[in-house]
Design goal:
The chain is an alpha/beta fold. Helix content is 41%, strand content 17%. The protein has helices at residues 3-10, 37-49, 60-80, 94-109, 128-137, 154-160, 183-192, 212-215, 240-245, 280-296, 298-317, 344-353, 366-371, 388-405; strands at 18-19, 22-23, 25-26, 88-91, 115-119, 140-144, 165-171, 196-200, 219-223, 234-238, 256-259, 264-266, 322-325, 334-339, 356-357, 359-361, 377-381. The two termini are 35 Å apart.
C-alpha cells in the first residue's frame, strides 16, 4: 500500500470498526461516503465555538457563523468554477436542488406541450420532479435509451431534440452502473436547440473535476454526503441570469428584504432560495470536505479509483455465475452485479456477515432496472479509502454467497 493510501485511511475513524467480527470493508460510497476527521472536526468546531444563526445578528457569534457559512459558499464556487458566488444556492441535497429548479424555473417558464428530455439511467430524484410537473402542466417527457453496455444511445438522443425541447436533464455519472456520460456533447446539443441543460453531479463531484463555465451547463446539482461531507447539505448551481428571473420556491425568513400584509419584496439570489435557518454546520462541513478533496487532487483520486475498478471487475468476472451489469467504456468506480439464482438482497446480507458493506436494491433507478430485466442488483462502489485488500474481501464474500446459496 502507498503511504498516501495509509494516510488517507487513517483520516477515516470508522474504518477501525469491526462488523460481525471482521474489519469493515466499506463499498457503499455511491450511497454515502465516509467522513474524514477534518470534516468531523469542522462540524464539531462550529457547534462548539459559533453555534449561532447567520445573517441576522450583530453579535460576534452570529458574525463568525455568517463568515464560516459564506466562506463555504465561496469554497463551493471555486470548486466548480462558477463565475459568481451568487450562483451557488445551498439546499439540503441533490434532490432538493433538482426540485428547486423544477418548481422555480420549469414550472414558471414551460408551457403545455413543451418537452423535457431525461435518460433511462436517471436516479429517481431526476425523474420524479419532472414527472410530477408533466402531470400537472401537460409537459412531455422524452427518454434517452440505454444500450446493453449501459451507455446512452447518443444517436437516439439527438433525434429526440426538437423545437419544443426546453430542458435536458441528465446525470454525469450513473449511480447504478458507474457509466460516465458525455455531458459536454449533451449540453451543446441542448443549447443548439434552444434548450437548457441540467446536470446531476451527485456521483461525479467526488471523483472528477467540474468546471461549470467550461461545461456551459445551466443548472448543476450535487450533495455533500457523497463528497465526504455531512448529510442534509447540497448545492444548486444556476447561471446568474436564470436565478435572477426565478421566483422563490419556499417562503419564510431571510429570503425577503421587506414584508408587509400589502407587499413582499424578495431578497436577491442566492438568499431568495434559502428560506429559514440553513444547515450552517452542514455547509461548513461541505466546505471542509471540498478542501480535503482538493488537497488530495483529482488526478490521484481518479488514478486510484480506476485501478480499483479494473481490479474489482477482473475479480468478479473470474467468479462463476457472477454477471456485471453495465460495461461502459468510461466508468467511475461503481460495479453493479448479479449472481444467477441469488436475489441481490441475499447477496448483500451474506457479504455483510463478512464485514463487507455493499448496496443491494434498485438504487433509486427502477426504470434502469426494468431496462435490464432485473428487480435489483448488488452494487460495490469504491472510493479513496479502499484498497486491493477490499477487492479480495469482496471476492471472498461473494464466493461465500455462492457456497451458501447455490
Amino acid at each position: 500500500m502507498s503511504s498516501l493510501y495509509e494516510q488517507i485511511r487513517a483520516d477515516f475513524p470508522i474504518l477501525g470498526k469491526k462488523v460481525n467480527g471482521h474489519p469493515l470493508t466499506y463499498l457503499d460510497s455511491a450511497a454515502a461516503s465516509l467522513k474524514p476527521l477534518p470534516v468531523i472536526e469542522a462540524v464539531e468546531r462550529f457547534y462548539r465555538e459559533m453555534p449561532a444563526n447567520v445573517h441576522r445578528g450583530v453579535h460576534s457569534l452570529s458574525r463568525e457563523a455568517t463568515a464560516a457559512y459564506e466562506g463555504a459558499r465561496e469554497t463551493v464556487r471555486k470548486f466548480i468554477n462558477a463565475a459568481r458566488i451568487e450562483e451557488i444556492v445551498f439546499t439540503s441535497g441533490t434532490t432538493a436542488s433538482i426540485n428547486l429548479a423544477a418548481r422555480s424555473w420549469a414550472a414558471t417558464q414551460l408551457r403545455k406541450g413543451d418537452e423535457i428530455v431525461l435518460s433511462h439511467m436517471e436516479h429517481h430524484s431526476n425523474i420524479v420532479p419532472w414527472k410530477m410537473l408533466c402531470e400537472e402542466n401537460g409537459f412531455i417527457l422524452k427518454i434517452i435509451p440505454v444500450t446493453d453496455a449501459g451507455e446512452l444511445d447518443m444517436e437516439a438522443f439527438h433525434s429526440l431534440l426538437g423545437p419544443r425541447t426546453k430542458l435536458v436533464a441528465v446525470t454525469q455519472v450513473s449511480n447504478a452502473l458507474g457509466t460516465i456520460n458525455p455531458v459536454e456533447e449533451i449540453i451543446a446539443a441542448a443549447h443548439a436547440h434552444g434548450a437548457l441543460a441540467l446536470i446531476d453531479a451527485a456521483q461525479s463531484a467526488p471523483c472528477m473535476p467540474i468546471d461549470v463555465q467550461a461545461l456551459d451547463c445551466d443548472f448543476l446539482a450535487f450533495s455533500g454526503h457523497k463528497l465526504f461531507g455531512p448529510t442534509g447539505i447540497g448545492v444548486l448551481y444556476a447561471k446568474a441570469g436564470l436565478l435572477e428571473d426565478m421566483p422563490p420556491f419556499l417562503g419564510g425568513g431571510d429570503m425577503i428584504l421587506s414584508v408587509s400584509f400589502e407587499e413582499i419584496c424578495y431578497n436577491k439570489p442566492p438568499y431568495r432560495f434559502e428560506a429559514g435557518t440553513p444547515n450552517i454546520a452542514g455547509a461548513v462541513g461541505l466546505g471542509r470536505a471540498i478542501d480535503y478533496v482538493r488537497a488530495i487532487g483529482f488526478d490521484r483520486i481518479q488514478e486510484h479509483e480506476q485501478n480499483l475498478l479494473r481490479g474489482a471487475t477482473a475479480a468478479l468476472n473470474s467468479l462463476e455465475g457472477v454477471r456485471i451489469i453495465g460495461t461502459a467504456e468510461k466508468k467511475a468506480a461503481v460495479i453493479s452485479f448479479v449472481i444467477d439464482g441469488v436475489h441481490p438482497h441475499d447477496i448483500g446480507s451474506i457479504v455483510d456477515s463478512c464485514g463487507v458493506a455493499i448496496r443491494a436494491g434498485h438504487h433509486c433507478a427502477q426504470p434502469l432496472m426494468t431496462r435490464f430485466g432485473l428487480p435489483a442488483t448488488a452494487r460495490a462502489a469504491f472510493s479513496i479509502y479502499n484498497s486491493e485488500d477490499d477487492i479480495e474481501r469482496l471476492a471472498a464474500a461473494v464466493h461465500k454467497v455462492r457456497e451458501i446459496m447455490l
